[in-house]
Amino acid sequence: MTRLFGTDGIRGLANVDPVSPEIALALGRAAVEVLAPADGKPTVVVGRDTRLSGTMLEGALVAGLCAAGADVLSVGVLPTAGVAYLTHTLNATAGVMISASHNAFEDNGIKFFSASGHKLEDGQEDAMAEVLTAHPAAGAPVTGSRVGQCVATGDAGQRYTDFLASTFTGTSPLNVRVGLDCAHGAAAPVAPELFRQLGAHVSVCHAAPDGQNINQDCGSLHPERLQQMVVDEALDVGFAFDGDADRLVAIDHTGAILDGDYILAISAQDLQTRGALARNMVVSTVMANLGLDKTLQAMDVELHKTQVGDKYVMQDMREHGAILGGEQSGHILYLDRHTTGDGLLTAVQLLNAMSAQQVPLQELAQILQKFPQVLVNVRLQHRCDPLQFDSVRKAVHAAESALNEDGRILVRMSGTEPVARVMVEGPTQAVIEPIAEHIAQTITDSIGGA
């Protein structure tokens, strides 16, 4: 049976189950039943990104929470990590973010945080799904003074940016020219203010959300305009966020893109130099480039790899006591600073590394030499593991034999959408691109593309 919750909450086309007002209303009730203590009135922090459907889903979710007896602190448009931070620091029972992260505006999603500010464990999510299935509106109605109320918090953004600014360890004011791409998303109200608060000269693009332009040819998946802006305006560094600002792609002063692998390598070196890399360990996923393996090995740093999804990186980090981990996509975790991935926090930590070494980001990035890599996404008509098909397995095995020890192949399903991902690494782009395309075509022929 397919789980209601994916690797990052519930996500899909907005106003269609499971991302419908009806499900959101029932989720609000279920969340109180599963997450709230038996005594006392629970408090839930609720935030959203800038999607057109955000207020619709927020209204339904808040109604469900209040109907079940929870008070709601509405923080409005705020990055996902801001919701997690406020959930923990305001001693709330839980937090909820309404966002589909890097997806197009037509999609939306709902993700929950525990009282500690961490994403929920699978068991907690499954318990909520079970409540929805078994009795979506069962039980005696909450009445009188036990009914919850929703209150807007006017200082949520300032509380969050004050926290982020407090993690900057360099010299203030920050004498750096910074470019920001806010993806017309949740970073727009807070990111420019944060870096101005640090004293940086700030140039901004894609910070005018209209409900439909979130992630549209901008942000961490499409940083081309920011790259050009960094070069044209002679900026020192650029930071591109996604729709809910939980991931970051950095741009050095030459316009080169630095993804999560580079960020992990730079941060590992910075923390190790300061004697602050707990357990001398970094956690990433199977998508991490082979170059990261080689770099960390040379630093005598242990690298753990998990399945894709920052929640799985988090689980491994907490299990082994690591403080640094993340994904190639730019979800980076600094567990000595925060409970979840945070694109804005990641940007500040890169500025810390630049300040400590007194060198440009480009020079810091030289620590990592990447293997050529290609990623092909195959959109399918329905979710289906490609590796269950003999034709796909044979194509992968033949390609692995051809690459021998000079590369690797990974075929997996996306955790949030009906997309098969084919990743190939090897000695040159000329070698790996035909391999990736052949495997992708085999998947399409075997399963059927969308």
Automatic annotation (TrEMBL):
Residues carrying Phosphoserine: 101
Cofactor(s) demanded: Mg(2+)
Coiled-coil ranges per UniProt: none
Positions with a binding annotation for Mg(2+): 101, 242, 244, 246
Catalytic class of the enzyme: isomerase
Family that this chain belongs to: Belongs to the phosphohexose mutase family.
Name of the protein described by the UniProt record: Phosphoglucosamine mutase
Organism: Candidatus Entotheonella gemina
